[in-house]
Amino acid sequence: MSWNWNSHGLPFLPGNTFRDVTKSAFHRSQTLNYKNGFPLPRRPTVGIGQDPLLSEQLMQQEVNQLTFEIPDVRFESLYKIPPKDFVPAHVALDKKVLRFSAYFQEDVLFSPNEVYRVRPVMIYYYLEDDSMLIYEPTVENSGLAQGKRLKRQHVPKNERGDHYQYKDLNLGIDLDVYGVNYHITDCDEFTTEFMESEGIVLNDPQPMPVDPYSKSREIPEPAHTTPTETDPYHQFLTLDGKVLCFFALWDDADSLYKETRTVTIHYFLADDTVEIREVHEPNSGRDPFPVVMRRQRLPKNLKPRPFPSCVLEVSKHEVDEYFSPTDFQLGHTVKLRGRPFMLYDCDDFTKEYFQTNHPDMEMKPIEVPKKVDVHHNRKREVPPYNGFGSLEDSLQNCLSLIPEPPRKNVMKMLENNLKVLRYGATMISQNPSDDGRHFVMTYYLSNDMISIFEKPSRNSGIISGKFLEKTRIPKPGSTVDDPEFYSPADFAIGATVDVFGHHFVLTDADQYVLSYLESISSQIPSQTLDSVRQKLGEGEVNNQPGERHGDEVEELPRDASEGQMPSLLFPAQ
Fold first, then answer.
1. How far apart are CA 509 and CA 568, in angstroms?
2. Quick one: DSSP state of residue 296?
3. How far apart are CA 51 and CA 2, in angstroms?
4. How do beta strands 97-107 and 147-153 pair?
5. What is the pTM of this model?
6. Which residues, in sequence order, are CB contacts of 209 under 8 Å at separation 6+?
7. Which of 212, 257, 539, 541 has a Cα-to-Cα distance from 204 of 20 to 30 A?
8. How far apart are the first and last CA of the chain?
9. Helix/strand/coil (H, E, C) string of 61-123?
10. What share of the chain is helix, strand, coil (3-state, %, to 5)?
11. Among 296, 269, 271, which residue's Cα sits nearest to residue 357?
12. What is the CA radius of gyration of the chain?
């Protein structure tokens, strides 16, 4: 019914019904919804226009009456229990896995130490699709190919093509999988609860047998708790991998060149051995893996002998004392194998070791003068310029056998890409034909290079165009070994720029030059910034911004972000 009918004691006949004129909603409530792409139907709770259902009214009346009469089974109930929703197995049993512990016995042939080997495995049974996986835990340094023994799959049970089900698994049984007999010994708590819920009684768990060969290789625990002084393994087990590192200078005065080399002395605490390695330097002409002395024990004092002897190696019975960590004191010279080594520094681990074990020794580093190349009796310098390419290109020929391109400041190139500073310049020359020629000087902020173009002039007889390609221009007085190049701080209006013997006077600049210099005003001299402001402010005074007179250039709008550059090659019309 579209509206709630109330008899008020009148029969349900035409003319005895009343409509609620205040009611305005006559829609039917929604009974279908979608969630995650699946339709979810639901029972309606209200009728049309939010009116209560007739069934709901009858139920409320029955509840109010609280009658205890036995319902008549001959009549069908008004309310039917909705069927349960169907849930597929891959949803209900997703990520539910049974885990069993098992082992298999492998025969070992042609070995006097073992006859068979016991290898434990884990059997995983996936309930969603009845597949199985067998995994063998990896054991370090076992020498066996361990890990996944059987990929996840349906395991055949017999020749008819049936595969194993969870009902076929139990504790204490043998599981035949492709010719290998796995004996199941135990399972986890979830497997036990699932089996009991399915009515399967599990057998008692069994202990995992011990591999006899692995047990024979176990090292018995020492009988004493504190190491003895005569224990030969205590020093190795406690100090293995701990090395003292000293930095020293080797004054090789007996060699042909009589030079001083930097070496590193390693003292191995595990066996009291010493190794000396030379610090390799590029282009030194020496072996890149220099070993001055191989790792060995160094005798400090030999036992006196009543007769002369000549032997190749000294045994421990002939040595009275070996070198120890206390013999290496910073600031002292220690003589090893007849060679003097002056210790000047050590690493942090060495300092910590001496503070803990030898607090009376002060390990304070000393200053060492800079290394001098005695071959040429002068300090190492940058190789001279060979005339090919730039200075960086020439240096790469000396750093490696196969030259590589020099490194560039990528961040600077990306930030200043397509950003240039343009200046108007006039050449100053003693030659009357060259004096007064007008040029445009462009400074590229991405790589600090400069290019120069000559503006065309009428009836001059000089071909205009490119005067100088993009290159870096050194300042007058700078040397090849220590060059100093021009920068935006040097380009003041009226300043003279020396370009490889040609002199140019800056007479004009773009409006972008002023905005850029003001953005980095802390790095630009005030004289340079004021000259550009004074020059570019002339147009504002005459109410003609960006306009030049005579032979000066015309200023055009410029967008620095898009890299649009005004044309300074042609004079204003």
1. 10
2. E
3. 8
4. unpaired
5. 0.35
6. 103, 118
7. 212
8. 92
9. HHHHHCCCCCCCCCCCCCCCCCCCCCCCHHHHCCCCEEEEEEEEEEECCCCCCCCEEEEEEEE
10. 20, 30, 55
11. 269
12. 48
CATH number of the 416-541 domain: 2.30.29.170
Beta pairing, strands 243-252 & 339-346: antiparallel
Mean pLDDT split into 10-residue runs, the chain, 573 residues: 53 69 77 82 77 64 53 53 77 92 93 90 94 93 89 92 92 93 95 93 93 81 60 81 92 73 92 91 75 90 72 74 90 89 92 91 80 42 68 76 82 89 92 88 93 85 87 86 87 92 92 92 90 76 37 39 37 35
Half-sphere exposure of 375 (CA within 13 A, CB side): 6
Q: What is residue 411's three-state secondary structure?
A: helix
- Cross-sheet strand order for the sheet of 116-126: 147-153, 131-136, 116-126, 97-107, 180-187, 174-177
Q: Which three-class secondary structure state does DSSP give residue 327?
A: helix
Q: What confidence score (pLDDT) does residue 305 get?
A: 72
Asked if residues 474 and 390 have their Cβ atoms less than 8 Å apart, the reply is no
* CATH class of the 243-357 domain in this structure: mainly beta
- Beta partners for residue 100, in sequence order: 123, 187
Scored b (16 or more CB within 10 A) or e, 371-407 reads eeeeeeeeeeeeeebeeeeeeeebbbeeeeeeeeeee
CA distances to 251, 282, 296, 345 from 261, rounded to whole Å, are 7, 14, 21, 15
Sign of CA dihedral 560, 563, 569, 572: negative
Domain positions in the chain: 90-214, 243-357, 416-541
Is 49 within 8 Å of 23 (Cβ atoms)?
yes
Residue 526 identity (one-letter amino acid): S
Q: Which fold has domain 90-214?
A: PH-domain like (2.30.29)
Exposed / middle / buried, residue 187 (Cβ in 10 Å: 0-12, 13-18, 19+): buried
**How many Å apart are CA 323 and CA 472, to the nearest integer?**
59
499 three-class SS: strand
The amino acid occupying position 520 is I
Nearest to 346 by CA among 240, 248, 241: 248
Unique residue bearing structure tokens 């390693």: 266
Beta bridge partners of 126: 97, 131
